[in-house]
Amino acid sequence: MTAHFTAARSVYARPEAPQKTPRSLEYDLLARITKRLGQAAAARRENFPALMAALDENLRLWSTLASDVADSGNTLPSKLRAQLFYLYEFTNLHSKAVRADKGSVDVLIDINTAVMRGLRGEGGGV
């Protein structure tokens, strides 16, 4: 076998990774951001800018989710859409409180974790 044949065979012989669903992508993104929030909160005194960056990233995610659920073409039930939009509003306000050292990151982590449970079908979501 030539080197080219061996290389081609190894590339084409690999089974493709299963495609992720939008729901699993949302879960993964929430999990990643939630982990960063927790790590940044734990190191808040040593690295305050990392906490600010994690809060901004979390808020960007929630802003995107709010925009999506506000879209008239969104097929989620209207009650769930309203609840998710409320969580965006709360997250926005609470993030400001955390920045002012008047709120706990734990609340934001709890919200993200509850939504992740919902995405996994474990109930207790929103």
Description:
The protein is built from 5 helices and no strands. Helix 2 (22-42) runs antiparallel to helix 3 and helix 4 packs antiparallel against helix 5. The longest helix is centred in the middle third of the chain and has 23 residues, at 48-70. With 126 residues, the chain is mainly alpha-helical. The model has no long low-confidence stretch (mean pLDDT 88).
Number of domains: 1
Radius of gyration: 19 Å
Shape: globular
Could you name the CATH class?
Mainly Alpha
Structural class: mainly alpha
Main β-sheet description: none
What's the SSE pattern? HHHHH
Tally the beta strands: 0
Average pLDDT, rounded to a whole number, is 88
User: What portion of residues belong to β-strands?
Assistant: under 5%
Pfam families: FlaF (PF07309)
InterPro entries: FlaF (IPR010845)
Keywords: Cell projection, Cilium, Flagellum
Organism: Cypionkella sinensis
Topology summary:
Layout: H1 3-13, H2 22-42, H3 48-70, H4 78-99, H5 105-119
Helix pairs in contact: 2-3, 2-5, 3-4, 4-5
Protein name: Flagellar biosynthesis regulator FlaF
Keywords: Cell projection, Cilium, Flagellum
InterPro entries: FlaF
